[in-house]
Amino acid sequence: MTINDIRQKFFSFMEKRGHAIIPSATLVPEGDATTLFTSAGMQPMMPYLLGQKHPLGTRIADSQKCFRSVDIDEIGDSRHTTFFEMLGNWSLGDYFKKEQLNWFFTFLTNKDEGLGLDPNKLFVTVFEGGSGVKKDNEAIEIWKSLFAKAGIETKEGDHIFAYSSDKNWWSRAGAPDYMPAGEPGGPDSEVFFDFGEKLKLHENSPFKNSKCHPNCDCGRFLEIGNSVFMQYLKNEDGSLVDLPSKNIDFGGGLTRLEAAVNSDPDMFKISSLLPIIQEIEKLSNKSYRDLENQPPMRVIADHITAATFLIKDGVFPCNKAQGYVLRRLIRRAAVKMYFLTSTIDNLEDISTLSPIVTKFYSPLYFDFKKDTPAIQGEIKMEIIKFAKALGKGIKDLQKNPQVDGKAAFDLYQSYGFPLEITAEVLSQMGQKVDIEQFQKEFLKHKELSRTSSVSMFKGGLADNSETVTAYHTVTHLLHASLRQILGEHVGQKGSNITFERLRFDFSHKEKLSDKEIHLIERLINQKIQEKLPVLREELPKEKALEKGALAFFGQKYPDIVSVYTIGDEINPFSRELCGGPHVTNTQELAKIKVVKQESLGAGTRRLYIQFEK
What we know:
Number of helices: 18
Low-confidence stretches: 201-207, 449-462
Helix content: 25-40%
């Protein structure tokens, strides 16, 4: 089974059990300034986990595209990737532990409906208690019953293990102590696949003399699914209180599930990644079978896959926010190819890996003919730019081989040189780098990054303050104004809203003139002064599009959608599909001003809008 087969099997399994299947949200959360990327399946579902009614009911399933940037530097082992899909099913105040654990176990082990995995190879974990929450004995008893039905008599410490909140508690921010006020969370139960003792007992394994368990790092066990019992909310005083209703938030790593089906712990041999690895072998004239080649090849395969999806979702390489992360992915892939080939010549050839991604995931996530040239061109252009910097960095090392650990880290920051590149170039000149000092600098950098990442979740949820809600509505006014003044070729490519400003990306080739900006400001402010009503309704998607509603930059939508109309119902100024919060009348908005414009390349512009003080 490929990941496409597994995804469809999961959808069919959940549909049969009353779940509505919804499409994936984009990798860049619309209007949510609390986080750069959609990094977990729960993020788009957050309003519904907190009590908002979902238009499709109380049972939902999806496969959510996710991107996690925190551990970019650690990609290269057999089981981690920055981009992945997370299968999800959701009970919004409907079923709870008994149904959820039974269904997931059935999906994993049933040969007809599910994946047909051997139940003897499945191990589970539960919450051992803490932070005022009792041990999850209910889940333990359910698991015992499920294993018994499969002919396996088990007990805690055998196929069932209990762990603290560090392992078996889930919220976006981690354990209860790290949860900000307003963040939901709860105990969870994880399922692991056992690849066999040979991985742990291998003579080169540092864990060969250690006791093995599902959460150890020997490589024997791989987490393939996590059922979160979302039942608590963090209070301002630090206490945990019950949510209005108990919810299920399940996440199953799609690539990991295929690795389990293949009974091969190397996720880079699955259907979506192996063709990329094989092409890297051709480009580098190196073999993936050689252990030293595996980490850089895995980095290249992962980073180009992630870059391809990010560009599709409206991110472009730059030195800010999401664009900075994308640039780092592409450049790090180029550095790894240099590591394989020892030359900067033709590094841009790794852009040819991107069409492998778009072809595999078409038509679900890409229009192969339409999307491939633009995405590949963006990656190629970025690598060509970087190759010059890479060449300069190598020359700098050759001119000044006396590089201490801090200088080596500065090279890493400036040119994207990982330590192994610096060490390799220096070794050719008979020099060594102070690895200990480098690691100290790196750990300082990583701690700053972690702190920054955690701070993105300050407040826990998207900011729905009056100002941010107002900017959401301005987004619609701006989109409509751009289309009136510049032409109907204009389409929204993305947006980002903070308390201070609105950032809006849209398709348009030329720089906006001062006159065009003035006309846009005047039209928006005119509509604010006209005190237009802002109406929300839920409609079937096809009916909404028939009424002229605009869709958000190619995003896929569920069958029932939220539609916001600004102005007259018959001849509105704006009508768009949107799930964000909005004012009820434009008179609630302050006068706006365009404060900045930028070019993002590839026929895309960016405007910054602020309310006048």
